[in-house]
């Protein structure tokens, strides 16, 4: 019996352990440096990779090193100012794209084509003024989008397709932009946030007024959907404009702006009860006079 001869000496075990540790560490680091861009942190989940880039020194989209199976990608508080279809084609399986408080001034029109499995798209806190007109017109590709956040940008208009080509949208946040009017033909049933915009309460506000009145349950912070102009109506809640009209019609001495007159007339045309109270309280002669001017 040769006891101990099959066992390696203790020094060898330590050496082997050290070698294995070093090898494992270096292979881990190589893999990490290959699969995660600089200035970002990556984590692997059962469904794919999560990538978070939140360093303010980041100014470019990291084209190299993004794990190809990235499903969640977030840029927060960076100086990223543009993003292209080419950038996004590196991450075709994205379901969650959060570009939150960066410096984006534009979006690639091909966005829905290159990332067609998106569930959530958060573009809040950027410098967007316009969206590409057809960015949301690839309806079938966008069937998965449920959440779209465009708040805290500088949007002055939104493409009509945004409101009726997203069949599964649950929440659309358009708050804190520069929107003055809403496009017509918006047959939507999702929840929407419209507060913090300078809605222009002239004759054309009738559409928004009716749209809001039809969707009281779906509009969050309804009381904060207010007029930015004209002066006489600033900060007035849009859903309560009929009350303003009622009192305006009653107070004969109030000199009404032409816009306000048309707005009230337009809104009252949608409500018979209001039309009748309007007929009772208005100074009929001045009304017909204005009408036939
Ligand atoms: C994602 O890719 C990494 C390597 O890049 C791999 O380790 C991981 O298993 C992949 N995950 C899935 C869900 O495919
Ligand atoms: C970036 O995100 C990580 C993880 O959430 C956090 O610990 C860190 O403080 C963030 N850094 C900045 C600059 O926000
Ligand atoms: C994107 O931003 C970078 C850095 O600010 C700039 O060098 C590049 O020209 C921009 N590309 C486009 C297409 O605007
Ligand atoms: C990003 O925006 C901030 C604040 O608006 C500005 O100070 C900074 O210069 C911008 N950076 C770039 C690269 O445009
Ligand atoms: C609403 O007012 C505008 C003027 O601002 C007018 O052109 C339009 O015909 C009006 N619509 C209705 C339905 O009265
Ligand atoms: C209301 O009608 C009277 C005459 O019936 C007129 O004197 C007055 O100026 C009118 N008021 C307004 C606000 O037009």
TrEMBL record:
Pfam families with a match to the protein in the record: LRR_1 (PF00560), LRR_8 (PF13855)
Signal peptide: 1-24
Record's keyword annotation contains Signal: yes
UniProt KW keywords: Leucine-rich repeat, Repeat, Signal
Domain of life: Eukaryota
Gene3D superfamilies named among the record's database cross-references: Ribonuclease Inhibitor
PROSITE patterns with a match to the protein in the record: LRR
Domain LRRCT, residue spans: 197-246
Biological processes, Gene Ontology terms: neuron projection regeneration
Protein name: LRRCT domain-containing protein
């Amino acid at each position: 019996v040769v006891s101990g001869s099959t066992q390696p000496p203790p020094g060898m075990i330590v050496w082997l352990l050290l070698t294995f540790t070093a090898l494992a560490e270096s292979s881990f680091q190589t893999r990490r440096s290959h699969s995660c861009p600089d200035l970002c942190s990556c984590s692997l989940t059962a469904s794919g990779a999560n990538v978070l880039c939140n360093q303010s020194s980041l100014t470019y989209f990291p084209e190299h090193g993004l794990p190809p199976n990235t499903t969640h990608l977030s840029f927060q508080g960076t100086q990223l100012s543009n993003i292209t279809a080419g950038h996004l084609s590196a991450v075709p399986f994205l379901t969650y794209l959060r570009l939150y408080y960066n410096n984006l001034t534009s979006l690639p029109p091909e966005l829905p084509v290159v990332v067609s499995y998106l569930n959530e798209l958060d573009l809040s806190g950027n410098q967007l003024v316009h969206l590409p007109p057809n960015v949301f017109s690839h309806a079938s590709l966008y069937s998965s989008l449920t959440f779209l956040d465009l708040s805290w940008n500088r949007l002055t208009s939104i493409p009509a397709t945004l409101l009726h080509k997203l069949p599964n949208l649950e929440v659309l946040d358009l708050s804190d932009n520069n929107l003055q009017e809403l496009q017509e033909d918006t047959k939507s049933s999702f929840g929407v946030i419209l507060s913090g915009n300078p809605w222009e309460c002239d004759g054309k506000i009738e559409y928004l007024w009716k749209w809001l009145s039809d969707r009281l349950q779906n509009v969050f912070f309804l009381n904060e959907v207010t007029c930015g102009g004209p002066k006489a109506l600033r900060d007035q809640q849009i859903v309560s404009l009929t009350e303003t009209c009622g009192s305006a019609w009653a107070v004969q001495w109030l000199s009404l702006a032409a816009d306000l007159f048309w707005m009230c007339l337009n809104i009252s045309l949608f409500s018979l009860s209001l039309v009748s109270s309007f007929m009772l309280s208005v100074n009929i002669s001045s009304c017909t006079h204005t009408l036939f001017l």
